[in-house]
Structures are given as structure tokens and as C-alpha cells.
Design goal:
By secondary structure, the chain is an alpha/beta fold. Helix content is about 35%, strand content about 15%. An eight-stranded mixed beta sheet has the order 4-3-5-1-6-7-2-8, sandwiched between helices. β3, α6 and β4 form a beta-alpha-beta unit. α7 packs parallel to α9 and α8 packs antiparallel against α9. The protein is globular and about 55 Å long. The C terminus is likely disordered. Bound molecules: zinc ion. Zinc ion binds next to loops.
């Protein structure tokens, strides 16, 4: 235990291709877990709205123009960039003995965005098979930082179209996996000290006339995604605006680690306003970096002060 840390544990469940659709799907576990949480269905993905670009932004705290990762790159070479450490390396350097885990259905995330030799426990399998492995790991190791990625919702979008009945059904099924992960943290006795997050990397659109969907563009269906956080200091309500890369700043804050200084050519991950009690961060509009229209106020959130 380190009393100086707001949280002893952070669990991130990434749901690939889920976009904003947690809002519309039947997701009882999500609804229960985040009943008193901070939620938005309009977090902005990175551009282009492709997996490596977006997951890379979340785990590295920078935009695709800085990390340069693509699906091809993360699938073909191990991640190594001394100037751009992943969240795992940042946490490991501060906490040599912490249990860290990366369990990704789409293994190129662990392979191509996380450095080697950090002592990160990892496994890969289709999400339904991977979940019991994850739950065992949580109960045994009580991880300090655990990152999970489930891929089948995106698979349903590519196969059947996004927001179609088959897609919504799969999102409902993956919601149960999210519930299993949360339950494992309860079983492990760590839930009170855990910041629990669900995030999507991008959504997707469908061609006229139906059929399989795709993503990569900048339509509302592709660029707006779900982000939800639950924990003892989380402020209940809607997060007014954020980018998916802000996940990095949220994780560092939760574990009591200092984030790098904001730099338009580098670290652009920020603590979203309205997420934690007792914080009132200045949130810089980075729409000129992402090619998005400005929509986040530059005014700091002032309803709570330290
Ligand atoms: Zn993806």
C-alpha cells in the first residue's frame, strides 16, 4: 500500500470498435458498474480511427503523428522507443515490484506498443476464452496496472455492420465479460482501491446497402467513443470533453505518478475535467492537432478546488 496514491490498482478494459454504442446497447454490467461513475459517449478517437493509432495514443499519451504506429507496424515489430515510453514502462520504473498485466485479444497491442523485459504478465486469446484467464490473474496477483483489450465487438462490426442487431448482441455479450472482470476485482478484495475504466478505440460505419462495416474515417460514428471511470474519487456525471489519449494521464494520476509536461509536439494527454473530485485541471483544446472541430472549452472546470 502506498498512501500517497489515489488508487492502488487501475484496471482498463478496452473494447475495440465499440464507439459510442455502449449508450445504445443492452449493457447491464456497464450500467451497474458506472452508475456512480464519470461517463462520456463523446470522447474523441485519434485520427485516423484505426486500432494501432488509437490504442497507441492511449498507451503512449501522444497522437499518431508522434508515435507513428500503424496496424502493420505493431503487428510486425516489437515496440521499442526510448524517447516514448509506454504506460507500462512509466509505471514499472516507478514501481519495480508492481504486478503489471496486458491481456489483449488482438496481441499486436502487447507486442507492438509495450516494451519487452518489463515483467508484464501477458496472454492472448479470443475474448471469451481470455476472460477466465484474466480473472484468475486478478484474483492471484491483484495487479497494480492491468490493461485488457476485447476484439470481438469490432469483429462483429466488420462482419455484420456497426450498430446492427448482431453487433449490439455481441456488445451485450462482451458487457458480461466486463462484468466478470469487475467481479474478479471484487473477489480479490481490491475493488475499493481500484480505478475501473472502460474505453473504446473507435467506432465504425457501414456501406450504403448494408454488409460489413469499416472504420478509419472521421464520421461521428467512427470518431466518438465511450469512456467510463468508476472509483472512490470519481465524480459522478458526464465528462464534458476528452480525447482517448487522455487515458494515459488518467492512469498516471490514479497511481500517483507525475505526467510529462504538455507539449504539442509530444505528450498531449491530459486529465479530463470533471472526472475526479478535488481536481480542476486546465484542459487544452487539441483539436488543431487532431483535425477535429473545436468543441472543448478552454476554461478550466471550477466547480471544485483543492
Ligand atoms: Zn480498433
Amino acid at each position: 500500500m502506498d498512501a500517497n496514491r489515489p488508487y492502488q490498482h487501475v484496471i482498463v478494459v478496452g473494447v475495440d470498435g465499440a464507439g459510442q454504442y455502449f449508450r445504445d446497447a443492452d449493457t447491464p454490467c456497464f450500467d451497474r458498474i458506472f452508475e456512480r461513475g464519470a461517463v462520456t459517449y463523446r470522447a474523441l478517437a485519434s485520427r485516423p480511427t484505426i486500432s494501432a493509432e488509437c490504442w497507441g495514443s492511449m498507451l503512449l499519451g501522444v497522437g499518431p503523428e508522434v508515435h507513428g504506429l500503424t496496424n502493420e507496424i505493431v503487428s510486425s515489430r516489437p515496440y521499442e522507443n526510448a524517447n516514448l515510453p509506454s504506460l507500462f514502462r512509466r509505471v514499472r520504473e516507478a514501481m519495480p515490484d508492481a504486478a503489471l498485466g496486458s491481456f489483449c485479444d488482438w496481441d499486436p497491442i502487447t507486442f507492438g506498443i509495450v516494451e519487452r523485459n518489463l515483467g508484464v504478465t501477458h496472454a492472448t486469446a479470443p475474448d471469451t476464452e481470455l476472460t477466465p484467464v484474466i480473472c484468475d490473474y486478478i484474483r492471484k496477483e491483484k495487479p497494480t496496472f492491468l490493461f485488457i483489450q476485447f476484439d470481438s465487438v469490432d469483429g462483429a462490426g466488420h462482419g455484420h455492420g456497426y450498430a446492427t442487431p448482431a453487433y449490439m448482441r455481441r456488445l451485450h455479450e462482451v458487457d458480461a465479460l466486463v462484468g466478470d472482470v469487475h467481479k474478479a476485482a471484487e473477489d480479490a478484495g481490491i475493488i475499493d482501491g481500484t480505478l475501473f475504466i472502460v474505453i473504446a478505440d473507435h467506432g465504425g460505419t457501414n456501406p450504403p446497402g448494408g454488409g460489413g462495416g469499416s472504420h478509419g474515417g472521421w464520421t461521428d460514428e467512427e470518431k466518438y467513443v465511450t469512456f467510463a471511470a468508476a472509483g472512490k474519487t470519481v465524480r459522478r456525471g458526464e465528462i464534458p470533453g476528452m480525447n482517448v489519449r487522455d487515458l494515459a494521464a488518467v492512469v498516471l494520476y490514479a497511481l500517483g505518478l507525475e505526467a510529462p509536461a504538455f507539449d504539442e509536439k509530444g505528450w498531449t494527454s491530459q486529465l479530463p475535467p470533471g472526472i475526479f473530485e478535488g481536481t480542476s485541471p486546465l484542459y487544452r483544446d487539441i483539436s488543431h492537432l487532431t483535425g477535429a472541430e473545436p468543441r472543448v472549452s478552454k476554461t478550466p472546470h471550477t466547480s471544485e478546488t483543492l
